[in-house]
Amino acid sequence: MKTKKLFFTVIGFISGMVIGISMIGLYSFTSGPAASAPTGGIVPITAAEANAFVRNYQADAAPLNKVIKGFTIDKEQLDAMNSIIKENPALTGFRIYLGKNIDARTIGIVVGVDNTGKDAFKNTIFNTDSKNLSPCPPICDVSSPIVINE
Q1: How far apart are CA 6 and CA 90, in angstroms?
Q2: Strand boundaries in the chain, DSSP class E
């Protein structure tokens, strides 16, 4: 039992590191100032709403039994990150939590991360609606030369 708990703790930590490094990489290679106010499927929410969405997702989420290879970040999440960093340029990264809204659709909850690795929940938190929001696996490009096992 302790081994299983340790396994999930390690997987969670590794997942957070991969996502955090990916976010920093994405932000580092963007050019120009952030776009104006976000549009589309990006909705500012409170920390309490974000918590409810995350708890809804976790209530029936399937346990992860594979190593996470990557994570899809779409334009909506990137727009949310640009808006957050424009609000607070001192942030060092971002975190995307998985949640389920009241319609039971999987959503991404985008929050800034400060230099201590803590969620910057006093800044704007965004709810993003994305059809591709999932770690890889299960949503992967299995034909990509990046992930093919030879």
Answers
A1: 33
A2: 42-45, 70-71, 93-100, 106-113, 125-129, 135-136
